[in-house]
Amino acid sequence: MKGTILMANRPAILAESLHKSYGKTHALAGLDLIAEEGSVLGVLGPNGAGKTTAVRILTTLLKPDSGHAEIVGLDVVKHAAAVRSRIGLTGQYAAVDEMLTGYENLQMVGQLYHLSAKVAKRRARELLMRFDLMDAASRLVKTYSGGMRRRLDLAASFIMTPLILFLDEPTTGLDPRGRLAMWEVIRELVAAGTTVLLTTQYLEEAEQLATQIVIIDQGCVIAKGTADDLKAQIGGERLELTVGHGSDLQVASQVIRPYSSGEIQIDSENRHLVVPVTYGAQQLVAIVRDLDDAGILLKDLVLRRPTLDDVFLSLTGHSSIDKPQSSQIPMAQTQERSAR
């Protein structure tokens, strides 16, 4: 049924050459995105890469300076109202009413979607149970912890089952149990036909959920493909070793450099090296012998395949995605709730 709403041969989400500037800052510089119906598009990038700006344009909260974007074949500028009726959005910051209870928040969102009072109450109870909030249902949200508010905000996004769901760093602030529960909810929605655009700071999250991944930096796409595709682009393996003494770190780096096929990452605090190698298994004995000859005491040594974090280092120069920031944007809370 959902597929019949899509225009023939049009993807669920399409962005072509999107540009957006804030003064002299170019948040988007020709961004292209595409997500097919019933898939999860993972969008990765360091803070400031343009992820949230892209989400706000695709959900009609911002207008692009130039370029074109469609949701299920509908132009996000020309047909904004129709687009909003087909999407759900959870932004980076919990947009809940602190002076209402958890139950009242969800009931209110249901009524905003024009559900009957009976159905809104039933959905509120179901979602409170699903997101492990039933024990706090009658408490004012101002008494909730940050993680509880985040779960309530996520629950509000599922009052209706949207055709397209935008999740902008949805599991930031959740504990591991909450994160796993959220992953399961996303999988269930996708299995039922919902298309998801997911921005995330967690590499494992993208690898677990995304059908396709795009990496953006400075407002444009620098790589795309499946997780395995992206790892294959940088090739080889990674040798990780921890030395017993911090004074040995630089010496170990010099000893192992002839075996390296790329930049060596040095973590002085943890006395740790990450070394890209080719045919690592064949070279492992020689590497250990050379380190032993140099008098290097090894505490740990492991050979592994590349990870998405390695891809990030190779493509952006960042050793990992920047950690989520805690600053809040009050205006964004109002805007994001209005898009639901």
TrEMBL record:
It is a peripheral membrane protein. It comes from the Bacteria. It comes from Ktedonospora formicarum. GO terms for molecular function: ATP binding; ATP hydrolysis activity. The lineage of its organism: Bacteria, Bacillati, Chloroflexota, Ktedonobacteria, Ktedonobacterales. Belongs to the ABC transporter superfamily. Drug exporter-1 (DrugE1) (TC 3.A.1.105) family. Keywords: ATP-binding, Cell membrane, Membrane, Nucleotide-binding, Translocase, Transport. Pfam families: ABC_tran (PF00005). GO terms for biological process: daunorubicin transport; doxorubicin transport. GO terms for cellular component: plasma membrane. Residues 13-243 form the ABC transporter domain. This is Daunorubicin resistance protein DrrA family ABC transporter ATP-binding protein. It is found in: Cell membrane. InterPro entries: AAA+_ATPase (IPR003593), ABC_transporter-like_ATP-bd (IPR003439), ABC_transporter-like_CS (IPR017871), ABC_transporter_ATP-binding (IPR050763), DrrA (IPR005894), P-loop_NTPase (IPR027417).
